[in-house]
# Entry
Amino acid sequence: MAFGGRVALVLLAGLPFGASLKVVRQDADNSTNGLSSSQRGIQQMGIFESDKNELRKGRATCTKCNFNKCTNGDLDTAAISCKTPIVFPMTTNQRKGFTEAEWDEDGRVLTSPYVAGDAELLDSSCQKLLRKGVFKRPEELGSSSFSDEFVEVVNMQYARLDNSKDLSEYFEVPALFHAFSLEDAAQAVKADFPSHWPTELVIQFLGEGAKMNQEIISHLTEGEFVNRHVLLASIVGWAVRTVSPVAFECKWYYGRARPEEVAWRVHSGDDVCDIDDAIKEAVEGFVETYGLEDQKKFSAYPDVGCPTHPSFPAMHSAASSASMFLPVVMDLTREQELEARRLDYAVAASRSLAGVHYHSDNLAGLAIGQEIVAERLGDFLEDVFKLVLRPDQKKSLEKAIKAKQFDWYRWVELGCHQDSSQSSCDF
# Structure
């Protein structure tokens, strides 16, 4: 994407291991209300004068770079600093800034870092989940792991644009993706409604004759509708709604730049610290083959580019938790349980095929989504649908949740995402 001038960065996380950055689109030539571009960038992200003194307190000097260039500068004149401007709970002025800043410099809608309120983050915050070992924090720019992930995304763009590989070379293809090319898969997860794919999976399972788990969800009649179709529809929407606040808190905590943002800065010749030869060569090769006159042209979405919010963790992945809740509330066969895992992973991985996420974004999102749903499913069934009220039902629910949880990192490490029939995948 063309910036029309310099690229400004806003630091979105103060991490124990350094500061991480998120690229913010900004026009260097225009100004609004007498503000410079950098000052406008600060205001756009919710940094106001009343916040600055607090931000300056304990502000450390950047000695390490994560994900993108890090330079020191005064908050009054620089669009970045070494202290995170977005914290939870957010300040009143930060909330005000996000409410009023509806568009970015390229005319795209900004994405809020919270959903409905910070109170939702208190019980299952990003850092709590990290301490619990639910997900692995993202590797910083300069690490070999980050370089490998970036090059992997670039190679996926070659395969997608050349139509040189099948989906099955990346993952075990679920039935709902069976006729898709790489481009089809990328487009299928471009702007899909958040509950679309899990809803399609529910329809598939019901069509196959799957019933509800009678030990947990009681039916009065064989033709039960409220505690089957309506309940399943509600759970699908609830799951997406429930994981969103925590996923977005993690996004703004880490502030990881999207692949296209890194590619554009490297291609533009900007001084990005800790860029190794592998990343440079990958970008140069891509540009030589396909050109890159606009940042958006890097991904499968050249009309809109990548989302404006940070990359890690992937929200599509966090919303892909059907493999957690469906095996609990439904009486599924082992093959159907595996199909749910295939679809969750396919939705997640297809975002990398589209060029908007790294592999670790997807795994973290899948792990976070599963954990949040497992943690809160019981309360939802009891409080909203007035189900699972008897002690025996609660015990069955707790047992089912524990039995159906699994480690996404282990699943992929063992290659189960490509072949779930292996004996090592029997968990």
